[in-house]
Amino acid sequence: MSRRIAVVVILIAALLAATTIFAQQRAYNLIMKDIGTTFASLKKNLDASGVAAAAAAPAGRGAAPAPAEEANAGRGGAAPKWDDSVRDAAVQDATKLQGLFKETEAFWAKFDTHDAMNAAHSAQDGADQVVAAAKANDPRKAQAAYAAIQKNCGTCHFSHREETGKGFLIRP
């Protein structure tokens, strides 16, 4: 009889441990929704800097300078600045994105999907660049880093997401 009790106690403990482990991992769709919300907030904060997204895109060789760059060229080229509270909000958003992309990378690691892991890692690097640029009060660099993050997201979504009509299906 005591042997049965010991087996039951062990099984219950194992079940509780497994439940705890799975409860600590967020569902992937919740991570993606959080990324979407945070990414939109970051975009709003970067746009509040007064630097157009087109001005942040790197110009090709021989390309005309962006209008903001032309306007600043004759005035010593001072970088535009944005409100401290908005800049700090951009830093917070980018920092949050770093953690969310780390969760995304861990999700894809379970499937050994290297291109998705690399995209998530590159997006983390982009978020790090946004943080550094915002702290340096350089909205152009922050916008360029934001565009790089967006490119990584698009690449992964194109390769690993399928529309079902009722939502999306993840393809590892």
Could you please describe the fold and organization of this structure?
With 172 residues, the protein is mainly α. The protein has a single domain (26-57, 64-170), classed as Four Helix Bundle (Hemerythrin (Met), subunit A) (Up-down Bundle). It is built from seven helices and two strands; from the N terminus they run αααααααββ. It starts with a helix and ends with a strand.
Q: Work out the oligomeric state of the chains in this entry.
A: single chain
- How many extended strands? 2
Shape: elongated
Largest sheet properties:
2 strands, antiparallel
Helix-strand pattern, N to C? HHHHHHHEE
Averaged pLDDT:
82
Share of residues in helices: over 70%
Strand order of the largest sheet: 1-2
Per the CATH scheme, the topology name is Four Helix Bundle (Hemerythrin (Met), subunit A)
Strand content: under 5%
What separation lies between the terminal Cα atoms? Answer: 47 Å
| Name of the top-level CATH class | Mainly Alpha
Residue windows where pLDDT falls under 50 for at least 5 positions: 54-76
Tally of distinct domains: 1
Q: Give me the secondary-structure category.
A: mainly alpha
- Which architecture would the CATH scheme give at its second level? Up-down Bundle
